[in-house]
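Margin note: ligand = iron/sulfur cluster.
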Amino acid sequence: MAHKITVDGNTAVAKVAFACTEVAAIYPITPSSPMAETCDQFATLGRKNIWGTTPTIVEMESEGGAAGAVHGSVTTGSLTTTFTASQGLLLMIPNMYKIAGELSPAVFHVSARSLACQGLCIFGDQGDVMACRQTGFAILASNSVQEAQDLALVAHGATLDARVPFLHFFDGFRTSHEVQKIDEIDDETIRQMINEEAVADFRRRALDPEHPTMRGTAQNPDMNFQGRESCQKYYEAAPAVVQASMDKLAALTGRSYHLFDYVGAPDAERVVVAMGSGCETLHETVEALVAAGEKVGLVKVRLYRPFAADAFVAALPKTVKTVTVLDRTKEPGAVGDPLYLDVCAAVAQGVQAGTAAFAQPRILGGRYGLGSKDFTPQMCKAVYDNMSAAKPVDHFAVGIVDDVTGRYLLGDERFEIPTGARKECMFWGIGADGTVGANKNSIKIIGTYTDNYAQGYFEYDSKKSGGVTVSHLRFGPDVIRSPYFCHKADFTACHCFNYLEKYDVLAAAKPGSTFLLASPYSAAEVWAHMPDEVEQTIIDKKLRFYVVDAAKIARANGMGTRTNTVLQTAFFKLSGILPEAEAIKELKAYAEKSYAMKGMDVVEKNWKCIDAAVAAIEEVHYPSQPAGAFKKPPTVAAEAPAFVKDVTAKMIAQKGNDLPVSAIPADGTWPTATTQWEKRNVAAFVPEWDPAVCIQCGNCSAICPHAAIRLKVYGKDALAGAPADFKSADTKTPKMKGLGEKMTVQCAPEDCMGCTLCVVKCPMSQPKKDPATGELKANPKPALKMVPQLSVREKEIKNWDFFLKLP
Ligand code: SF4
Ligand code: SF4
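Resulting structure:
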């Protein structure tokens, strides 16, 4: 039986690539960087490829340089690889033409990412890959973490036999960063997949002064055309080479792939054609629809270039009447998007030549999932339903409201995929608070120590540190396809108490499910401190509600603001996925693995947090009515500009998916100064100023990365009308005296991120040496000290508003 590992797509690909590579020229770009980093790490540790040598990993100055280095390396007969995405891949295009034109085997692994057009988007779609379809590279698509590992190996094997370089891609983030439990490919299988005779042939073709030949000549009109055509036989042979490599893999592993894989009813009349992770969602939708008696099917495109038209036509059922081609890219101004055009041409050729077993079907085109837009079974169902409509929408977008063209489909929200005994869990965290890292460990523990299949996906925006993160974990006895967000959570955790006022964190919670809240309030107190809307949802859904003061435990055990270990422990205790003792043992082992590099004292602090967390979880026995303490505040202030209210506020509230196309400026021109309206309110603790101790150096204001603590010097008359709690001091430094007689250091409690940098850099807040023991102890009277945000928020908001009006 194959060895199972729980791993993300980038790592799965990097392991195979490393084993098949002698030289990797790298340059980092999101979301491909972990592949290069993993190979670099393996090389540093002295790991070997299948030929027993450690690959040379060379970081270049840009992706253009990396592709140039690949070109040079393959020319010398070295098995060479690179990893990239998006604009990085575009920078490689000139060299890709050269590598392909010289029929040099090589593999580029690409975690496909959106291209910067109207705005920069680091998330996934296939715009970058589609820009390379004319370079002469074979293009192989993987749809899941398992496939990314398997087809990475097919690419490394087939490139040697075909003499065509390969671009192997999978969806950025959705596959590159998704953690899945998969069957691992071992080195012996990799060895058997590589044709040593083809390796020897490749080396014999290398430029070598012992057998001199020349490449890269200049060509004139008399023969350049013929030269371009001379490669054709290799491209015509390549599909068969790829299929042979896939068949070899099937014989070795039992996992079978084809150039085009069909799933669905044998007598399907409505068929979707797609490539990438969306195929997994379509696959499970087709299974559910076929089980309900619908005649639907799906063709998964695996080898996109060379496009084997005959094999594609043969993959369609002879009963097909309507085809919808889904592209994960947009080619503005084209007759249709790239895959659509290939399918139209292939079907027309097959029908004209009489090789198709069906009459010309109607072919529709649609776009989905740009910039990692979630692609759900409900959307897939809408695509199949559209094919049955009397007047189907053509050239549509799915999953967004395109009120500009009117050509769009929305998901059928009533449709559900049966998920059996599978569990879904969602964790709301703050970027860089450790929630995502902890959940990666959690899903690996579940995948490794239980018989369950496991999947982890981590949703975050490009703010990364300090932004909102939502971790989506699934586990259960059956294989998990489902490359989309959880939307029926058995377990919901909110790692930031203030999120209750901002986001609908319980929208996906199932009735009767568990809700864990990181709360500064005990079970007895918390009901008086939550918005009514959240409490009503808890009552209506009959949630099992628990609180834990994660911040207090983390602080007490020297972990500062890092609450992730406490909350991860609470998840294992409440979910019961592992027996408690075993869960604690594995959590401690993972803490050691994760933090050993930082020292055993850090590991031990984590262990203490784990022990303390188990004892600190409290169930909340809530009443049948909300406390009536307060309602959720509006996302932005009433005086915000219209654009901020209509557009920015929706994005801030995590409802940007609901924005229609007409709401977005078509040329990407955006109003400025909109961030002032976003009150993040994520800091559990904020700095409080003591004017009597402050020496007015300004360090705090200068260091704050969010401009959330500021200093003003002003005349004393300006204090007229100040709130009762407003603090000020007489100016002390000679320079300030010239500017005014009063000064204030003021924190914006809703903008502060609680990072403590201002305290760390304040000369009057440094720890003091205990004269008796010489030990450093907390300063008993600092100029700045961190205090619970909730205890000062209301008054400090008023103070901040007044401060802003000071001259
Ligand atoms: S803790 Fe201090 S430095 Fe950090 S965001 Fe808040 S005010 Fe700025
Ligand atoms: S609070 Fe500290 S860092 Fe800020 S001005 Fe005063 S002494 Fe300087």
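Residues 18 and 206 are 21 Å apart (CA to CA).
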